[in-house]
Amino acid sequence: MKPEEEFLNAAAWTEKYPHCYPRWYGNFLAFLCINHPEYAKTVYSRGVSCIALYQIGRGLLILNGPKWQQHRKLLTPGFHYNILKPYVTLMAESVKEMLDTWGKLEPKNGTASVEMFEHVSLMTLDTIMKCAFSYQKNAEIDRDNSYIQTVFDLSFLFYQRLKTPWHHNDLIYRLTSKGRQFYKACKIAHHHTEKVIRERKDSLKNEKELEKILKKRHLDFLDILLCAKDENGNPLSDEDIRAEVDTFMFEGHDTTASGISWLFYCMAQNPEHQQRCREEIMELLGQQEEIQWDDLGKMTYSTMCIKESLRLYPPVPLIARELNSPVTFADGRTLPKGFLAALDVYGLHRNPEIWDNPEEFNPLRFSTENSKHRHPYAFLPFAAGPRNCIGQQFAMNEMKVALALTLLHFELFPDPANLPIPMPQIVTRSMNGIYLKLKALR
């Protein structure tokens, strides 16, 4: 399949096969693509293993069994609302820096066409460095976006590898030019995270410094990793810490960048909803200069728009799992242990059996009343079950902050000369970028 055809095919196949269908790569690799809530519930509400072709680090994303349970338990406190609360200010700082950059791009009394994904990726990386690692030395990130490029390369190479069955063998893959490129990119990503960890470890060696850190600010994600101990009092190994940092930095900024970029695109395409969100935010903030934690829960209409954009353009469009025990579906059909299942989130979210007029942008689908009557597995942008996304509240908060501040400062318009062509990699991207026209409001 050509990349630009994959989503079109997924939507067409979902319409034809509204529960599931096998997708073959060659003659020897098959996934059962699941695009119906009942099928999704059967597979994803139970214990399933993650397939391990994603090799930037053996973190929470791909760990299985007792080690996954241990890491999930150790990391869950890092996403408690007491930890997330102070992040709102840091998120707002990063968004404002992006908006300042946009202000310089915009010509006087006119509109500027800006590629969203690159700018938003820099902003979300900056955010995650501040929130997860209290890392303020970000000038080199602004000047040199090699990490962003590395993440892009890893996404592309991973997806190509997934679709090339003979590249699933590590030995064969290492001998190919793509494999060499992949492992070189992993090395760059590892170097980046090792630097962050090394600097924090050095600061924690001093007992007075450690006491000062613990008293003066929240425990961030890296603090939790460095201080975590299992039930036997053993800390995480350096390799485990690096794997979790790699996973969180990779998944925490790239997926959110996709979500925010497509949210802005949906706002530009639907000016009446954009204006309604803007009015809600202006009324909510009033004369208040800064957005606060308590404001996020009151962004009712904006939250519905965010969810509708996540429905149409889920940041992670396909979630593959390996069954660690046999499965029997409600209709009596079965799958054996070891079979690969893939939640086709894009197909699920556009399934005409579940969603009326699935191509239409309609935030009212997510009103309290309409949500009551929907299957709990019909909307899964953050997956489901025990392996759902641990950082989903962090991501939703960041999307709310980005939307609120952006709509206060800019009006978003589509760029008809550069309409995006959605394509799946690890995240939902566009083949030709996501270009929007910006007009400053203040």
From TrEMBL:
GO cellular component, one term: endoplasmic reticulum membrane
Binding residue positions for heme: 389
Keywords assigned by UniProt, alphabetized: Endoplasmic reticulum, Heme, Iron, Membrane, Metal-binding, Monooxygenase, Oxidoreductase
Gene Ontology MF terms: heme binding; iron ion binding; monooxygenase activity; oxidoreductase activity, acting on paired donors, with incorporation or reduction of molecular oxygen
Tagged with keyword Cell division: no
Predominant location category: endoplasmic reticulum
Subcellular location: Endoplasmic reticulum membrane
Requisite cofactors: heme
Record's keyword annotation contains Oxidoreductase: yes
Domain of life: Eukaryota
Family label: Belongs to the cytochrome P450 family.
PANTHER family: CYTOCHROME P450 FAMILY 4, CYTOCHROME P450, FAMILY 4, SUBFAMILY B, POLYPEPTIDE 7
Protein name: Cytochrome P450 4B1-like isoform X1
Organism encoding this protein: Podarcis lilfordi
Lineage, highest ranks first: Eukaryota, Metazoa, Chordata, Craniata, Vertebrata
